[in-house]
Write a structure and sequence with these properties.
It is a single chain. The chain has 638 residues and is of the alpha+beta class. It contains 18 helices and 39 strands. α12 runs antiparallel to α13. The longest helix is centred in the middle third of the chain and has 17 residues. It is globular. The structure holds adenosine-5'-diphosphate.
Length: 638
């Protein structure tokens, strides 16, 4: 086994790898950018080396600097995590040329699976079923559109170098083909430096089921499947293992195909073979198709670890250190059911717009596994993936595990940024999901209900006012709080709240009686429990995962608030302006797309807030803009 390794990553996965290393007595070296000098992963490792400025191209993607850091610190091997350099065969070769070990498959195996088109060809040859479509070299728009006609609509255009749901466009009608092709190709170019695409038949009622494989270069086994059908914009949201409705027969067929795929390329280490399953008529062993193989550890690996009782990072380290795979297929047994939910700093109700902010509070219930790369006080910056944590539960049955997941989400305290916590909790309450009726369209179909935000109840508002007004500080048994004025107004941004202290834990709030007690970060108001965080003049209060943020207003500041009308389009996050579809003087209708921005390598379309005429355009394609910048203004309404 290695005595010291370097982890070429950040965030939760770097922390996750460090944890296993600690358990095995392996020393760790972290690398970090300037934005991550005080990040959790950099502080957890035994040593930390600075790579460069915040942008990934100047830090986490700098293979040369990473290899040098490993050599300088005496690390013997490099664990790439996921993303960044994890599937970059040139990096693997450079690591090996420097006399170090890459903890992962060979450059050759990565290359074989690196491009979706080449991988599909290879799998066809290995006898693995693939999605019908076109994956050849000819790329002219006319030719591709003919191919799409032949395949039959709807089709899915995929950037062949794509990953993480980027560079994909579903097309329903021939007349939309060219615009979609341009979009997929542009995203492929900007995210992966490759504009080429392939076209697939769109599978109706698709389920995403993937098989975890593990190889030692000669032999491979599989560790069962994960169902990742719960997706938004082709990105996984909640994953589970086993897949609902999976039969032994189908698992054996998919497992054998996945092992065939891994052995065909002499695979060493942890890998995932992703299949798309046509579930229009239940699960059937003749309706799964190879989509791609991810030649690395995946974000959702913990659900497999939970049901197989393994530590996949430990396996990765052992195989990379030259130990053969000791387990056989028969050693792998699946126990119970596991879920993982991905907690993100993003606004689900605004089409999952990435968010930033300093997490003033972050706490998870103790009984569950939460893999996180940030702590309370840490900042979610615009430079990297805005994941906050993965919440993982394991129960004896799917029903039990789902109940645990719901409870875990409801007991999670997060404040300081917009998050998808309420959305995740809403999914755990979704009836179809509870019945195991999952497909990749579920979230889009029920988007409005899943992202509906109820107004805060009177009790919730009262609890918020009591918390930010400092009323809850005194414990009930301490008797009357002499220092609190008996009648006070708490000026919240939602309106002034009148609080009268009647006795210990008893208040009259805006004329209603409220009994409220605080216990740490919990406040119980009229019998209902809320989690809360007070940070300066801001109180975040969570009612079963739905949070509301109230600000206590300083009356002197109020004048500054006025002035921002509904006549302009502002940047909802820091990013790059890609396209501008309008010009001064142009008439626009509410909802029409005006500006395309890119942030976190994803495109976001900003639409007209109302009908009107463009008065001024304050940006151009290629401009870097900050959160809140005014990009366009409309003529005032007549
Ligand atoms: P990426 O590498 O960007 O993750 P994938 O090829 O793995 O892209 O596809 C991501 C998701 O897109 C899948 O999980 C599935 O939900 C959906 N998808 C992919 N191919 C198809 C298809 N042919 N028909 C319907 N949905 C698809």
């Amino acid at each position: 086994m290695f005595h010291k390794i370097l982890i070429a990553n950040r965030g939760e996965i770097a922390c996750r790898v460090i944890e296993t290393c600690r358990r095995l007595g392996v020393r760790t070296v972290a690398v970090h950018s300037d934005a991550d000098t005080r990040a959790k992963h950099a502080q957890m490792a035994d040593e930390a080396v600075r790579l460069g400025p915040a942008p990934v191209s100047e830090s986490y993607l700098r293979g040369d600097a990473i290899i040098q850091a490993a050599l300088d610190t005496g690390a013997q091997a490099i664990h790439p995590g996921y993303g960044f350099l994890s599937e970059n065969p040139d990096f693997v070769e450079a690591v090996e040329q420097a006399g170090l070990t890459f903890i992962g498959p060979s450059a050759k195996a990565i290359r074989a699976m690196g491009l979706k088109d080449a991988a599909k060809k290879l799998m066809e040859e290995a006898g693995v079923p693939v999605v019908p479509g076109y994956h050849g070299d000819e790329q002219s728009a006319d030719f591709l559109s003919q191919q799409a006609d032949q395949i039959g609509y709807p089709v899915l255009i995929k950037a062949r170098a794509g990953g993480g749901g980027k560079g994909m466009r579903k097309v329903d009608r021939p007349k939309d083909f060219r615009t979609a092709l341009e979009g997929a190709s542009r995203e492929g170019q900007s995210s992966f430096g490759d504009p080429r695409v392939l076209i697939e038949k769109w599978i109706t009622t698709p389920r995403h089921i993937e098989v975890q494989v593990f190889g030692d270069g000669t032999r491979a086994i599989h560790l069962g499947e994960r169902d990742c059908s719960l997706q938004r914009r082709h990105q996984k949201v909640i994953e589970e293992a086993p897949a609902p409705g999976m039969t032994e027969e189908m698992r054996a067929a998919m497992g054998a195909a996945a092992v065939r795929a891994a052995e065909a390329i002499g695979y060493a280490g942890a890998g995932t073979v992703e299949f798309i399953v046509d579930a229009s008529d239940g699960l059937s062993p003749d309706r799964f198709f190879f989509m791609e193989m991810n030649t690395r550890l995946q974000v959702e690996h913990p659900v497999t670890e939970a049901i197989t009782g393994t530590d996949l990072v430990e396996w990765q380290l052992r195989v990379a250190a030259g130990e053969p795979l000791t387990s056989t297929q028969d050693d792998i047994t699946l126990t119970g059911h596991a879920f993982e939910a991905r907690l993100y700093a993003e606004d689900a109700a605004k089409d999952f717009l990435p968010a930033t902010g300093t997490l003033t509070a972050l706490a998870f219930p103790e009984a569950i596994r939460a893999d996180s790369g940030v702590r309370a006080g840490d900042e979610i910056t615009p430079f990297y993936d805005p994941m906050i944590a993965k919440i993982i539960v394991h129960g004896p049955t799917r029903e039990a595990a789902l109940a645990q997941l719901r409870a875990a989400l409801e007991d999670t305290l997060v404040a300081g940024s917009v998050t998808n916590l309420a959305f995740l909790a809403a999914l755990t309450r979704h009836e179809g999901f509870a019945r195991g009726e999952v497909d990749t369209g579920l979230i889009a179909r029920d988007y409005d209900t899943l992202t509906a935000r109820p107004e805060p109840s009177e009790d919730m508002t009262a609890a918020a006012a009591l918390a930010v007004g400092g009323f809850l500080e005194a414990q009930p048994h301490q008797g009357f709080t002499l220092w609190t004025p008996l009648l006070q107004t708490v000026p919240l941004d939602t309106g002034a709240v009148k609080v009268e202290v009647l006795g210990p834990g008893h208040y009259r709030v805006d004329g209603r009686d409220v009994t409220a007690h605080r216990n740490g970060t919990t406040v119980t108001a009229n019998g209902r429990r809320y989690l809360f965080d007070v940070s300066g003049n801001t109180v975040t209060i969570l009612d079963r995962a739905t949070s509301h943020v109230f600000h206590r207003i300083d009356p002197l500041d109020q004048a500054a608030e006025a002035g921002a009308g509904g006549d302009s389009l502002t940047a909802p996050m820091p990013g790059l302006v890609k396209l501008v579809h309008t010009e001064p003087g142009a008439a626009v209708t509410k909802g029409s797309p005006l500006i395309v921005m890119e942030a976190m390598k994803m495109e976001h379309t900003l639409t007209a807030p109302r009908d009107g005429t463009v008065a001024e355009l304050a940006t151009t394609p290629g401009a870097q803009v900050s959160d809140g910048d005014i990009l366009l203004t409309l003529e005032p309404e007549a």
